[in-house]
Amino acid sequence: YIPYFFKYAETAPTPNKAMQTLSDNGLQEAVNLLLGGYRIARIEGSASPEGPEKKERGSFKNNTVLAKARAEQGKRLLDERIKKNLDGLMIMRSEPLKQALAASYPVVGRAELFGTDASGKEVADPALMSHLRDKLAAPAEGQPDPLAQEHVIGAGLSVDAQSADQADVDAFRTGRRGDRRLSRDERLQAIYEP
């Protein structure tokens, strides 16, 4: 699993320089894995469930569209990186990258990663924070962490991504960054906006 981070509610790269570096390193890691014989299983895009960044409230219906657009942009970015790497390779080493460019695999938008209830319905804004606190609470010993299962934290991410993401998850779960108490919006930004 290799993440790529986008600007809030857009398909442009995140303005966060540390996350830009992680995204760029991830693209090169994907190319290196392809050169090592790995194949692309799928590209998934996702979107945050809290909706638009402006102070509008209520249901935001474009998360599926945004998630799909991010997946498509991720594929374009990966294809560009593969083509850039092809320029400097000898013919016999370039075959895995040529195969990756020609391959067909799912490019899908997942939309509501944690903002839906058990029936798949979007949780309305007034209940969202309570829903997320319950759903994303630190797991009991021996239980899986839903954030690790969705590759937000944990195995499968680079060490740099793990430490950056874990700090944000801890801020969301505790409601604090260091000694400072976080507002509701700051907690949502910690969990959803790199």
Automatic annotation (TrEMBL):
Name the UniProt record assigns to this protein: Uncharacterized protein
Origin superkingdom: Bacteria
Natural source organism: Pseudoxanthomonas broegbernensis
